[in-house]
Model the fold of this input.
Amino acid sequence: MPSSDDSSGELTSGTRRAAAQPPRASGPPEAGPDPVHQQSQEALHEAEEAVVAGGIGARFRALLGLDSPDFSWTKVLAKQGILLAFVIAMVGFSLASDRFLSFDNFSSVLRQSSIIGIMALGVTIVVISGNLDLSVGSMLSFATILVVDLHDKIGPAPAMAVALVAALACGAINGTLVGVLRLNSLIVTLGMLSAIQGFTLIYSGGQNADITNQSDTWFAFFGRGEIAGVAVPILLFLGLAIILEWVLHGTTFGRRVFAIGSKASAAEYSGINRVKTVFFSYLISAFCVWCAAVVMGSRVMGSQNTVGKGYELLVLAAIIVGGASLLGGSGKISKTVIGVLLLGFIQNGLLLLGFSYWTQWLVTWVVIIVAVWLDVGARRGRLLSPYA
Amino acid sequence: MLSQPTSKLARTVVRAVAGLLPAALVATAVAQEDEVITIGITQNNVGIDSYQTTYEQAFIEAANNNPEVEAIVLDAQGDVEKQINQMRDLIQQDVDAIIIWPTQGKAVVPVVRQAERAGIPVIVTNSQIAEEGQQFIASFSGPDNITQGIYSAEIMCDRFTEMGIEDEAVIVQIAGMPGYTTAIERAQGFEERLPEVCPNVELIETQPGDWNREKSQTVMETFLTKYDDIDGVYSGDDNMGVGALNAAKAAGRADEIIFVGATNFAVGYEAMGRGEYWGSIYQSPVEDARNALRTAVAVVKGEDVPKSNYFDTPKITQENMDQYTKPVF
Done:
């Protein structure tokens, strides 16, 4: 199945220079994701350079594919639906509540979303490689308990180091079971979800952990600090997003992730080391969870045993809304970021308007369904189809 | 239904558990054989939190201190199936009374009925069993969440009256996990009592904090954005209350807000000590355990025991907190 990058390449193919590229491979797209992907990457970059030269108008036309010979609004809706939904939600909430559109509220929502967001970045890579990671919620509980509990005992820096080692160990176990033993990732990480939660309870003996001296520790920087007026969690979230976007699209590792997610066997026949790639994707996911745990521990200055319970589903929801396919092979870090922000702003907006929690659940569900529908629509080229 | 093999299996399970808890299992009293009251207890999940751990220690201690009582202390480890087997085993042993801390309110009803049919009174401790099981139990011993909510409303109102803002104060509520009896009752007690004692205090909004401090912090941040004036926050427990306190501190508005929780936690106790958090309700696992044993003994002796035998959950505020030790949870 085509990755969304391939599609973006196709989308911008109407621009002058990119039009010189051959049409997309006519064979089954699964057959050779790597060369196609590289080509479309180049096409995308060239197209981008072209539109930068043409100014805002051309950029906008390119984004929507207005110059494309096979232009249709359905396609635009399908490709950029998530962005559109985001804009509509923002405008709607701004009109409905005079508190919504303010710097304070925006920065507070960004700060709140950053924990889920940082986790979602890592899981996006796992999902693109065709696997799942349901253990991130428990891993978050474990790493947060560790960092908070050890903070008072051995100091902030060693505590963070221990939590990092623990998180990476969990990631390595996931990576080994899914990568080396080739077990189903859903089952492995579902098992790890329980196992890590159990381990957290054994470690803590059921006690909540708290940081006693909250005002005098530099550890507060990660969850409560600011750099140039921007909260540190937001900077961490966006910084990691930029780095992982580069890892996915600028390194061979990233291309391997896409290749394995599109068709693992084909990727292996073309010499890609599947074990290594899957293993590292889980390590990245675990690293992101550790970052989220540091932010969480610092923001709350305490931790419950079950603090991350259910977060794995919020993370998955954000990724699905961002349009990544749970079957692997497609997804974008930038769209996951938008997915995270969309869900964060919807929660905030509904709270500001005084809706109850069940409304939030309902709206989240509707957003996920629409996102999946648009995603399917993008793949078959039309929103409504008599065929599945 | 396969009662013989099942109970043998159950006994094996119990013995296995007994092996794990050598000192804890049987607390033998020194009284004469014919006066000894044998009480079996099957707990929910000792070790999962410090409340339940402290409860077990306090129960064993109370049983040891009572010469009339011989206690058989079992732990279901959160497993309904295991708890049902433990109940059957206690019925087989023909104990004088069974205390159960239900792992699950509905699933244990049939085996509670079985005990009642066998003539063994059942005392439910800490968490209620389902409505349909009420007819089979002798008594419920535990905290009264509605009372806790009522007391919280009174703490809040008293404080507003002291400050002289009882006619204009507006408050928000951060409730527990939707659907949980504990969350519903704590909210209900508060919402019913507040208009009685402070009719002009307005509860402007309630949102769930899911027993989660981070979630509560997020909810409170939104409340602070939405409302320019908040005088009080009532939360389903101190854990969520401290989350709300964190948000208010970050927004520089903590000084103008009175924080009251429905159950005192160690974090809340500490925040009270720092003068940042006003009050809560003191729920002691030691008192919980002692009350359960007292209730069971009274039932066995044929004394008149109320169907709901609540233990006292006093109000704790910055003013009287020195009379209480820091909660263990």
Q: What stands out?
A: The longest strand of chain A covers residues 209-210. Residues 1-71 of chain A form one domain.
